Amino acid sequence: MTVPEHVAIIMDGNGRWAKQRGLPRTMGHRKGVEAVRETVRAAGAAGIKYLTLFAFSSENWRRPEAEVSDLLGLLKAFIRRDLAELHRQNVRIKVIGDRHSLRSDILGLLLEAEETTKDNTSLTLVIAFNYGSRDEIARAVVSLARDVEAGRLRAQDITPALINARLDTAGIPDPDLIIRTSGEERLSNFLLWQAAYSEFIFLPEYWPDFSSEIFRSALETFASRDRRFGGLSSQAAAVGT
């Protein structure tokens, strides 16, 4: 089976999972953390090299203050509880998103996770936190514009590769597969540039119900697809020859 090098997941549906069961939204988020742990283990076992999880978007700050506080608390608890285990499993943690406005306690934990695991060589777990793709692209463009103003770069020399190198994901391959749970079928400002040739799988299950079995089924669906990247399919190319 062809295994994707990079899988990105929009973990959606925690609140609706809880509402369906008459529980507070916070319980959905807590159950979602358990799904994160299982997914990280499953990704490593499958031989995936990069797993990106959309943990907290730049738009999530608009949610009720109590819910935001709970989400931040869960992130802190996850890193404090799971960092040592991830490190033992040779997992490298990379955080993408705008860091400038983050609280010092949150930023400190994220930096600690990156620093502790920076030399690990197994799965790279990319955590998209305070992340919005349009913001990411805008920050990359501003960086290039400053170089043009300073005379370090000519505007006509800007290429997609140069833009790519200024994104938060510089050095990380584009996702081969993007999965979204909860039945929603949109990207929601997630990896817009990087998703140019990604395969998409939209699942009806809410994120807390996401399991290694569901993950494996999604990987099997990916393996059955014929990725053409704008060219001919492998079957058509064979007929042409």
TrEMBL record:
Cofactor(s) it depends on: Mg(2+)
Keyword DNA damage annotated: no
UniProt-annotated binding residues for Mg(2+): D12, E199
Protein name from the UniProt record: Isoprenyl transferase
GO MF annotation: an example: ditrans,polycis-undecaprenyl-diphosphate synthase [(2E,6E)-farnesyl-diphosphate specific] activity
UniProt keyword list: Magnesium, Metal-binding, Transferase
Gene3D superfamilies referenced in this protein's UniProt entry, alphabetically: Decaprenyl diphosphate synthase-like
Naturally occurring in which organism (per UniProt): Rhizobium laguerreae
SUPFAM superfamilies: Undecaprenyl diphosphate synthase
